[in-house]
Specification:
Length: 240
């Protein structure tokens, strides 16, 4: 994408776990690990690729998903400034995943040895990696478990709480706005449902006064009520 070296360093410095590094250390990383440019819709890795790498997203957005019962199930939407690909380095059960760019993106990849060297040279970075990956894996586990034990409204409530935590913006001191305009089809891939199933579940959450849709953006009107709904199954069977 024709970025200058200074711009590469600037983007690299904004990756959360690399904040403790000095300018010189960032320059060394940039020289050692060249950028990978992705077009929207392009896969970075699939389950067939068993390379053990940790990816650093410098710019763009990447969707991590797997196929469950013939459907795409989104595990995470990775925003720029963070890392992903940790399944290859940690939990074997979650390795069967895809990573696809949702828009033009720039990443760089570090192999297992590179990650180990980085942690040995910078223990503070290692602590941040451990914390982030532990939290991420916990979210993945919860997402997959919810597919089998929760009804669609409860799964949608759980997802909206996660999205609010990751990107939510307070509006009037009480409501939380999710700035990204997620379609019902996209939300469906995140909870193992269909667009119709999400539309019905969203209607249920609106009827309960927990959420509201304005100008194609989702508002959490009663986050505490949404938390209670997320912990229970729907009172009757829902189509997925």
């Amino acid at each position: 994408m024709g970025m200058s070296f200074d711009e590469q360093i600037r983007l690299l410095s904004m990756v959360d776990i690399l904040e403790p590094l000095s300018q010189e250390q960032l320059e060394t990383l940039a020289q050692r690990y060249p950028d990978i440019s992705l077009e929207a819709g392009q896969h970075l890795f699939t389950p067939q690729e068993r390379s053990e790498r940790l990816y650093f997203l410098k710019k763009g957005r990447v969707r991590i998903y797997r196929i469950a019962e013939g459907r795409e199930v989104t595990l995470a939407m990775v925003e720029d400034g963070t890392v992903f690909g940790e399944m290859a380095l940690t939990d074997q059960r979650l390795r069967d995943s895809f990573a696809r760019a949702e828009e033009k993106s720039i990443v760089f990849a570090m192999d297992r040895q590179g990650v180990e060297d980085l942690i040995l040279e910078n223990p503070e970075v290692g602590l941040q990696i451990t914390r982030l990956l532990t939290e991420r894996l916990h979210v993945y586990e919860e997402r997959l478990e919810a597919l089998s034990v929760k009804q669609v409204p409860a799964r949608l409530a759980s997802l909206l709480l996660l999205l609010a935590e990751a990107e939510g913006v307070m509006t009037d001191g009480k409501q939380v706005r999710i700035p990204t305009r997620y379609t019902h089809e996209m939300l469906g891939t995140m909870i193992g449902s269909t667009r119709i199933g999400v539309t019905r579940a969203f209607g249920r959450l609106q009827d309960w006064g927990a959420v509201e849709l304005r100008r194609r953006q989702i508002y959490l009107k009663e986050p505490e009520a949404l938390k209670r709904l997320a912990e229970q199954a729907a009172p009757q069977e829902e189509e997925t």
